[in-house]
Amino acid sequence: MPHLLKALPNVGCKPRHLKYYYMRILLLFNFLAIPFLLFSQYNGVPKELSIDSAAFATLKLPGSPDFLAPDGDDVWILNIDRVEKLSAKRKKPVLSVPVPGACGAIIVGFNSLWVASCSKQAIYRIDNRTGKLLSVIPCGISDKDGEIMLAIGNNSLWVLSDSTGVLTRISAKSNKIQALIAVLPNSHCAVFDFNSVWITNTTANSVQRIDPKINRVIATINVGKTPRFLAAGENGVWTLNQGDGTLSHIDPEQNKVVAIVDTKVPGSGGDIATGAGHVWVRAKKGIFLQAINSLSNIVDSIYTPVYGSGAVRITQNYVWVTAHDINTIWILKR
């Protein structure tokens, strides 16, 4: 600071003038220090929260409540041989519908809930308002354990139907198969956004993009090791890579990975969702739940403790999280 003092004009050493200039120097120093202070306050360590304390409501549901599908501010939840509709305002299900061998990530679209049945190798279509069964569509399911994701878009339901590499397109109008699209083997999960279907190629460590106008793969993008579940929205397409515990952020404009986030959760299971400006990763081991800022690609928050496997989905006002091993659903406010 001495060199700054030398630059002071001659003010006749009047105390009130010196006080004025010292105040200006201090303000300048504080302004220059702001970036350093901000950097010091954020040292890359995410905020740690208890899921039990953060949740405004906790539900217990008999069976094995797992995958979720947003339906307005409610959710549908996959359970053993059934699906159930939950409301944040009620402790018990609003609806319960039997689905033999219900498996995988369920989805709502075209006034319907769509559910895969591993035992029947079919898709069950259910009226999401009444719970009435509308149709059963035989098509095949690519993974016998039901670790799959369905996609909705372009007036169709999309399901990976054969582990040899088949993506099946089902018309939401007729409930009939429209197309069988060749993709890489061992592809099980799909999502629809940015006018495309995106699927993970688990053993090939890649993502394929399918154009629904021509029913063909138009891009294959290398991602992390053993990608399985994926999500779209919040500034891109995101894959949870089970082999190395990373998150790959794909820019749909460039068809390439623009960021890799180390979520430190390698291993099977898990789930991923987008919403509220974040990508949410639910893991079976390591970190129970984490929220990654979709613009900075930085983990903002982590939730503890670990409660085994489960799922996460975002509705209009809530974040829903499950742990099927302990029959529990937490509801957080966005």
Structure notes:
It contains 3 helices and 29 strands. By secondary structure, it is mainly beta. It is globular. The model is unreliable at 1-43 (pLDDT under 50). The protein has a single domain, classed as Methylamine Dehydrogenase, Chain H.
Per-chain topology:
Blueprint: H1 2-6, H2 15-41, E1 47-50, H3 51-54, E2 57-60, E3 68-71, E4 74-79, E5 82-86, E6 95-98, E7 102-109, E8 112-117, E9 122-127, E10 133-138, E11 151-153, E12 156-162, E13 166-171, E14 177-182, E15 187-193, E16 196-201, E17 206-211, E18 216-222, E19 227-232, E20 237-241, E21 246-251, E22 256-262, E23 271-275, E24 278-282, E25 289-293, E26 299-304, E27 312-314, E28 318-323, E29 328-333
Parallel strand pairs: 1-26
Antiparallel strand pairs: 2-29, 3-4, 4-5, 5-6, 7-8, 8-9, 9-10, 11-12, 12-13, 13-14, 15-16, 16-17, 17-18, 19-20, 20-21, 21-22, 23-24, 24-25, 25-26, 27-28, 28-29
